[in-house]
Amino acid sequence: MLLILRYITLTIFIIIRFISQPESSLLYAQTNNEILKKSIEKLPSQNKIDVILDSARKYFTTDIVKCVTFGDLAISYIDDKITDESKVDIYALVSSYYNNLGNYSKALEYLLIELKILENSDKYNALKTGKCYVNIGETYRAATDYNYALINLNKSVSIFSSLNNDEGIKGMSHSYERLAAVYFELGYKSDTSNIRKAIEYSNKSIEIADKYNLIARKINNRTILGACQLLLKNYNEALIIFNTALKESYKDSTYSDRCNIMNNIASCYFSMSNYEKSIEFAKQSYEESKKRGIPIYVREACFFLQKSYLALKQYENALMYQDEYNVISLELFSNEKNRLIDALEQKYQLEKLEEQDKDQRTKYTYIGIGGLIILVLVVIFFLFRQNALNKINKELEKKNQIISHQKAELEEVNATKNKFFSILAHDLRNPFNGILGFLNILENDFDSLTNDEKIEYIGFVNTSANQVFKLLDRLLQLSRLQDGRYTFKIERINIKEVAEQIFRLQETNAVNKRVKLIIEVANDEYINADKISFDIVLRNLIDNAIKFTVAGGEVLISTNYVGDNIEICVSDNGVGMDSEDLENIFRLDKKTVSIGTNNEKGTGLGLAVCKEMIDKMNGKISIESIIGKGSKFTISFPRA
User: Fold this and answer.
1) Cα dist. 195→45, 143, 192, 229, 424 in Å?
2) Where are the alpha helices (DSSP H) in 64-165?
3) How far apart are CA 39 and CA 404, in angstroms?
C-alpha cells in the first residue's frame, strides 16, 4: 500500500511539473543570458551567433543544458543576412545538443529545418545532406521509430556512395555505425537474427574508421559490438570490447558518449552477477551524466543501480534509484513528445507535397509553352523541308562514298587473303616435296641404302613433317583467334615462373648453340593475362631469340614498369633485322621467314599468332632491331 501511494505521489508531481514548467530542464540563469545579449548587442548577426556557439561548445563535455540554452539563443539571431550554409551548420549543431539531452522532438524539428534548407539551396551540398539524413535516422532510432531510422540512414548511404571521394567514404562509416545501432535495437527488442546485421555493419564501419583514423567511430562501433556480445551472453568477450572502448574514449577529450560505455559495462557485470562492479561503473556513469545533464544516461545508470542494490538486498538505495528512474522515464517518453514527432514529420511531408503541387503547376505551364513552340517548329519544318531534303541527298552521297571505300577495303583484304594463301601453299609445298622425295627413295632403293643413309633420310622426313605440323598448328591457332573460338581466361600470372619454365624446356637447344639464357625478373612481379596464351607468346619470342643468336651470344628476359603496366623484354645479340623485315613482320601477306644461325627453319606464322593473342589480352608488342647487333621484343600487360 505504501509503495502504491509513493508512485501516485510521484506521478502527480511529474504532471504538475509538465503543466507549470514544460521547459524547466532547459532553463539557464536569466541574468547570464541578459549579460551575454548586452555584450554582443552591437555585433552583426553572424558574429553574435559565432560568439554564442563558441560559449555553447565550451560546455559540451560538462553541461549539455547550457549548450541547449546557448544554442536556442543563437537560433533566435538567425535572419536574412545569415547564409544558408551557416544556417545549416547552426541547426545541425543545436539539434545534436537536443539529441544528447534526450529531447528528440526538438532535435528532429531543427534537423527537418536543416534538411529543407539543404534541399532548396541553389548550391546542393551532398555531403551535408548525407550527414543530415544520418542525424535524422539517429534521432528516430533514439525515439524507437526504427522504420523511419532505417529509411533515412539508407538514404544517407546512397548519397555518400554517390560522392565517390574520401569524405563520402568517411560519411558511409558514420551511416554504417548508426545502421548497426538500429539493427542492435531490433535484435534486442524483437528478432535476435538482426544482431548478425548489427555486427556486419559495425565491422564495415570500423574498417573505414581504421583506414582514416576516425577515433569516435571506432569507439562507438566497439560499444555496439560489445553490446551484441552481451546480448549473445558472451560476457567476457563483451567486457574486453567495452573496456577497450572506454580506454580509447579517454584519449579523445571531445568524446561525449563515455557514460554510455560505463552503463554497458555495468550491464555486463550485472548479467555476470557481479553486483559490486555493476554499481561501481553505474555510479561513474550516473555522476558524469548528471554533471553533463544527459538524462537518458542518468536513467540507464539508475536502472542498473536499482537492480544491483536490489540483488544485494539494500532496499533503501534500490528504492531511491527506482524513483529517479521513473521520473526521468516519464519525462523522456511522454506521449506529448511522441505526438510532436509525428506532427513534425507530417508537417514536413505536407510542405513537400505543397512544393510538388507547385512544381506540377509549373510543369503544366511549361507544357503549354512547349506546345506553342512545337507548333512554331512544325511551321518552320515545312518551310525548310526542301532544304532538309537537299541535306539528306548530300548525306546519301556521303554514305555511298563510305560504301565505296569499304568495298575497296574488302577488295584489299581479299587480295591480302589470296596473297597469304599463295605464300602458305609455297611454304607447304617445299616440306612436302622433301617428304615425298625422301619417302620415294626409301621405297624404291631401301635394300641398297646403308643404315646411316636410311637414318639420315628418315631424319629429313621427320624434320619436314614437324615443320608442316607446326605450320598447321599455328594456322589453327590463328583461325580460332580470328573467328572468336579461342577462349581467354585472364588471371594473375607470375612472370618469373613462366620464364623459368620455358628456359628449362629450351636449355638443351641453348646449350647446343652455346647461347646463355639470363632472367632479370623479380619474384613478385605479376601481370593480368591468359596463362596459356602468355606462355605461347613468350615461348615463341624466346625460341626466335635463340634461333637468331650466334654461338657465344646471350638471350635476356627483363622487366620494366610503365604506369600501371609491366613491360617484358626479350633481347638477343644475334643477327638482327632490317627495316623491311620490321615493317612486315606481323603481316600475313608478306613472307618474312628467315633462317636461323644453325639453319633452323620457322613457320613464318609465329609472330602473327603472338600479335593476335597479345591484342586479345589488351596487351601491346613492339620491336627494336639493328642488323648485326640483335633484336629486342617488348610486350606489355596490365600489372596485377
Assistant:
1) 48, 20, 6, 9, 70
2) 64-76, 84-101, 104-120, 126-142, 146-163
3) 87
DSSP 479-512: HHHHTT-S---EEEEEHHHHHHHHHHHHHHHHHH
C-alpha 517/C-alpha 542 separation (Å) is 9
What is the rounded CA–CA span in Å between residue 631 and residue 614?
A: 19
Return d(Cα 436, Cα 439) in angstroms, integer: 5
**283, 317 contact by CB (below 8 A):** no
Alpha carbons 439 and 41: distance in angstroms, whole number:
116
Count the neighbouring beta carbons within 10 Å of the beta carbon of residue 294: 23
> Which fold, 392-484?
Helix Hairpins (1.10.287)
DSSP 78: -
Neighbours of 103 (CB within 10 A): 23
Element containing residue 51 per DSSP (H, E):
helix 45-58
**DSSP result, 574-620:** SS---HHHHHHTT-TTS------TT-----S-HHHHHHHHHHHTT-E
Crossing angle, helix 126-142 and helix 166-189, to 10 degrees? 10
What are the extents of the domains in the chain? 353-385, 392-484, 487-638
Tell how far CA 564 is from the center of its chain: 19
- Reading the block at residue 313, the C-alpha cell is 538486498
Angle in degrees, CA 450, 456, 458, rounded to 5: 100
How many angstroms separate the Cα of 203 from the Cα of each of 240, 475, 516? Answer: 16, 55, 55
Q: What are phi and psi of 206, to 5 degrees?
A: -65, -40
Model confidence, pTM: 0.47
What is each CA distance from 78 to 27, 72, 321, 591, in whole angstroms? Answer: 21, 10, 42, 85
C-alpha 473/C-alpha 362 separation (Å) is 71
Q: Do residues 130 and 171 lie in contact, with contact meaning Cβ atoms separated by under 8 Å?
A: yes
Cell of 561: 614498369
Least confident of 29-38, 262-271, 428-437: 29-38
Q: Are 173 and 217 in contact (CB under 8 A)?
A: yes
Domain 487-638: give its CATH code.
3.30.565.10
When mean pLDDT is compared across 85-99, 215-229, 319-333, 462-476, the lowest value belongs to: 462-476
Q: 68 falls in which pLDDT band (50, 70, 90)?
A: confident
Task: Name the amino acid, one letter, at 108.
Answer: L
- Residue partners of 162: CB distance under 8 A and separation at least 6: 126, 168
* Secondary structure of residue 634 in the 3-state scheme: strand
Half-sphere exposure of 247 (CA within 13 A, CB side): 6
Lookup: cell for 502? 620455358
The per-residue pLDDT of the chain, averaged, comes to: 80
Q: Which helix (H) or strand (E) holds 567?
A: strand 565-572
- CA 30 to centroid of chain Cα atoms: 52
What stretches of 190-271 show up as alpha helix (H) in DSSP?
194-212, 215-231, 235-249, 258-271
**Burial class of residue 611, CB neighbours in 10 A (0-12, 13-18, 19+):** buried
The pairing of strands 516-520 and 554-562 is parallel
Q: Are the CB atoms for 542 and 506 separated by under 8 Å?
A: yes
Helix (H, G, I), strand (E, B) or coil at 338: helix
What are residue 436's DSSP bridge partners?
none
Nearest-angstrom CA–CA distance, 112 and 186: 25
Dig out the grid coordinates for 194 from the structure.
538482426
Helix (H, G, I), strand (E, B) or coil at 486: coil
Confidence grade of residue 27 (pLDDT, cut at 50, 70, 90)? very low
Nearest-angstrom CA–CA distance, 426 and 423: 5
CA distance 204 to 198: 10
Q: Which three cell numbers, joined as nine digits, stand for 155?
A: 538514404
